[in-house]
Specification:
With 85 residues, the protein is α+β, with helices and mostly antiparallel strands. The protein is built from 3 helices and 5 strands, in the order E-E-E-E-H-H-H-E. It starts with a strand and ends with a strand. InterPro entries: PQQD, PqqD_sf.
């Protein structure tokens, strides 16, 4: 998929997941550990399908639900202007 954070986004890992800072407006975003896993996979070049498969394998969710969750996360990050692909 080729997901990447925009230049104005800073990230830091915490014990609760990943915190994203939009340096343009000072807004913070918190990704839980599951969301952080998905984002790490997509940043590494994995597809949304591969990320969804990892979620379905790791957690007790169907493949369809995992795919919807991954799509919703990516759509939300795009809508917030935090990522580009």
């Amino acid at each position: 998929m080729g997901l990447r954070f925009r230049a104005h986004v800073s990230t830091t890992e915490t014990e609760y997941g990943t915190v994203l800072l939009d340096e343009r407006n000072g807004r913070y975003w918190q990704l839980n550990p599951t969301g952080a896993l998905v984002v790490r996979m997509l940043l590494a070049g994995d597809s949304t399908e591969e990320a969804a498969l990892a979620l379905a394998t790791e957690f007790d969710v169907t493949a369809d639900q995992a795919q919807r969750d991954v799509t919703d996360l990516v759509d939300g990050l795009r809508a917030a202007g935090l990522v580009t692909s």
